[in-house]
Amino acid sequence: MEPSKRESHIQQSLTFCLGIILIGCLVQAAGWMKNDRLVFPDVPDILRAFFRLLGNPETYRKIWVTLCHLVEALVLSTVIGVTVGMLEGLSPFVRNLLKPLMIFLRSIPMIVLVVIIMVLTRYERVPLIATSLILIPLISEAASEGCQRIEPELIDVYRINSGFTPSIFFHVYLPLTAGYLRQAYISAVGMGLKLAVSTEYLVQTKNSLGKAIHTSSYFNEYEDIYAYALIMIALVLLVSALPHLIARLWRRLRLSRPNPFDRSKVDLIDINTQGGQRHENPTDRRHRYHQRRHL
Global pTM? Predict the structure, then answer.
């Protein structure tokens, strides 16, 4: 990493830590203004509750249940959202046809959607279905916008050789819309976790963060509620940064592999088999001579 990039990264990390301190100061100031230590506990009490929850194995079981709901909702909404978004980007008719439905899903209140889904299906499936339905418009809009921004000349070149095939979809459309989908993914992770926890709170999903928050609010354990909020923030940061970390690791693995076609690291020798003798190109001989001098 270059010094300028390293300094920028350190500055961003310090700024992020200052933002966390600012949140703690706001909670502390709200407690002083309201004069209610029950609803707004002190920051040290919140931190003690946070580390106490991290030391409890039951907390990780609740995190796992909520993460499963989040990942399942992201996978389902991504598959449906990308498919619908590509269709909207390729066809104005489909875009206008599905526009009222997308506006409806973006505008409907969460509590109304959860109540409707609770009537239609079992309670265990409500977090998955409700979260997916809310995230589909976000992802489909990003896919549609990215598809519409692709240069028409580039698409015409592929259409000359063949029609719309799965190979063109995976090698042309998806890479060119990856930037839009990446931003949508970052937004979908934070929104999806909030929606998953909210639906777990409403339907009382067993062994979940939503159920734990409901129990803490019932017994007026507000320091635990703030501690669970910190855990949720950490989960959002982890899941949002996971694809970027995987991509960086993949690039490092590819760079660490030796490249047999790298002409700067091997001596190129022109081997002629005429007469069973080995002949070296004079140009390559001079190149190797200068390489040895530099060494």
Answer: 0.72
